[in-house]
Amino acid sequence: MAPVSIFGGLVWILVASSLVPWPLVQGWVMFVSVFCFVATTTLIILYLIGAHSGETSWVTLDAAYHCTAALFYLSASVLEALATITMQDGFTYRHYHENIAAVVFSYVATLLYVVHAVFSLIRWKSS
Length: 127
Known about the structure:
This protein is mainly α.
């Protein structure tokens, strides 16, 4: 399984188990992590079974998806970090640290999606 799926799954688990003061932020972060996890897993499976057949449209799809996923994860990471900063007071120590872990893994997933997007765009440009 790809590292982005592993870190995305960790974000999904941590946000689902944590207490975020703004339900809208928690909903967006959950949507992004679940959507990217499912879409990345689907693309990996399709690639492994050879559905791409070496067509250039798959290179375009890969570049477009990873650019979109990187943008989604960046927005989710910033919102999760903002929610975590605002919950320093009035929440339990455990909830605060779960959110910190979710923010860290979310930024790692963002970095991995950005790196993959850059390499996908380079491959797309050369095809």
